[in-house]
Amino acid sequence: MKWKGxxxxxxxxxxxxxSQTESDGLFMAKNNFCGGFVAGFSQWNHxxxxxxxxxxxxxxxxxxxxxxxxxxxxxxxxxxLIFTLPYIQNQASAGTLIxxxxxxxLNVFLKRELYAINFKGWLTSFNGTLGLGLPTTNYVADYLPxxxxxxxxxxxxxxxIDVQKxxxxxxASAFGMLRRNIEIDRDAYYTTKMIYSNSVQMPSVTGYNIxxxxxxxxxxxxxxxxxxxxxxGGFDIRRNDMPFPSNNMDAIKVGLNLKWGIPGINxxxxxxxxxxxxxxxxxxxxxxxxxxxxxxxxxxxxKKTNKK
Length: 308
Fold this sequence. Notes:
With 308 residues, the chain is mainly beta. It has no helices and 20 strands.
């Protein structure tokens, strides 16, 4: 099978929220582990069918509940291993479509600081991230907008710059993502032409993420976020038709994210995020919120014993 593009659809998938994520300039210290859970909720009742903004009384409001297990391990102070695994429940308020739920995809990221410099008080680092994703259950991808994911093996790469002076910071990143072809439960389907196959080629995607705000330390920060993605290829949802996995899906989102250490409990932090889709193509105008907690601790190395 040929490798094609990956897109995390702003129309169907919940937001991700982490402490020290693949999209920020923060790193976990060596032999430290940070893990926890985040619960999220998102919904939309208007969407873009191509570039036509509309509602659809046949589905009403599409909503998604999620809970995500995540973790970050510091291989050393410049290399982190990050993973996420979400459980998702999607439903529509109207119509006859049956809601879907289940474990989605395991995503693993290796984040590395490539170069760092202090220029007149501006702490600047250049970072790179590689990611892999694998579906963990046999969920149905060809059931949008209620599918819990795209059910493809994925690969991604991201380049990032993080700049901080005192407590002001800005982080900017650009990425490309790949997804392997998927197979659906029918022998023919129509895109812009009739295709007699159960194999679907997915459009590739590029994107960017910009975040800026106040950051005291990795456990205390408030940031505003601008997030964009653009598929390279794909086709528009046909008039009054259901979405399809290989649609052209573009989105621009804005949001607010914060993390705050819990006083009196060393290593425990609370997090919250809100995101809004403000422009798009073949995606929903989604409102998303999430909140959770993570706990960080050091994994001690086994002590060496002297043999007599």
